[in-house]
Amino acid sequence: MSMDQSLLRIILENHILKSKVVLGQLFNGQQLETIGGRFLRVFIYRSAVCIENACLIRGSKEGSNGALHLMRTLLKPAENTMFQILTENGGFKIFLSLMEDAGLTDLLKQEGDFTLFAPSDKAFAGLSSSDLSLLRSDTDALRTILLYHINNGIFIGGGLESGVTNLLKSLQGSNLRVMFANSSMQVNSVLVPESDIMATNGVVHFVNQVLYPADIPVGNQDWLMLLKRLISYMQIKYISGFRYQEIPLTFMKRTVTRVIQEVPDERKVTRIIQGEPTITKVTRVIEGQPSITKVTRVIEGSQFSSSYGTTNIALEGTDISGLANTEEDSDRLARIIQAGRTRKTGSRRVLDGTRRRARD
């Protein structure tokens, strides 16, 4: 049940665009982004406007919160390329094999806008292995047949005007006659049993017969018999000696691949340190003898006195009380001290008052 709900949500999101787009704003080749993050392509034909393989019904409405477009069928964004669609189907093995032999497989994979009328394995049911070998033997002939099934441009059944024959120029160069009538598509009067399978690079229509350009003759009997077994809806022209011409593959996108023919050299670089690592020890050297500053504190105070006498001591010399602790003052102090050693300092002891009585 959860898977069904999830699928339903995806289907509904495919029908709602992120922004409001009215009918007059649509143009051919436009891509519309849905709220689910997917893209829908717009195709405008002479009498129809289609989004993917669903065409609009006349009478789109514009409201205050958006625009409403009525569609004939459900919308589904394309997910796979033409090559993936045919491969997953499993009923187009011979056609895919022939495309590979002709070097055209990349055409089904590359980006673009193509219409492919893909012949199923039923279309080759009457061929033997020798017939297939003959078909593969002439690359120009094989490309002529295969490229006649592909048109440059996307044409879906609902976009074609009903009952009108439309001429679509194939990649081979001749026209395909396509008509949509009675809710079915025909190409060169061959019924298309399943149509409008949308691919990321175009649209695929299934056919059960091989298509062949009416204006291209056959040049030998073997090829004439081969094509008669393949094609029953038309007469094949025969012109003796006719040869198929090479078709320029200008519509193919070239892919350039660079091939390296030898094993690249592998180089591993290792940094080698020879010997023990060098350790440098730096010692800061201070030149000269360190200066030592010696400061002597001189205390000056009152004279010493006692009841027996007074002693006055006077120091002669220079007053050093104003010297600061600087290198210049240290030198000056040293000179003062040196000078003081050579000078005699006199002291006088004075006894005042009554002389001290000697002991008896």
Automatic annotation (TrEMBL):
Gene name in the database record: LOC104960487
GO cellular component: extracellular matrix; extracellular space
A Gene Ontology molecular function term of the record: cell adhesion molecule binding
Family matches, as Pfam families: Fasciclin (PF02469)
Superkingdom of origin organism: Eukaryota
InterPro entries in the record: Adhesion/Biosynth-related, FAS1_dom_sf, FAS1_domain
GO biological process: cell adhesion; extracellular matrix organization
Name of protein: Periostin-like isoform X4
Alphabetical list of SUPFAM superfamilies matching this protein: FAS1 domain
Source organism phylogeny: Eukaryota, Metazoa, Chordata, Craniata, Vertebrata
Residue span, FAS1 domain: 1-75, 79-211
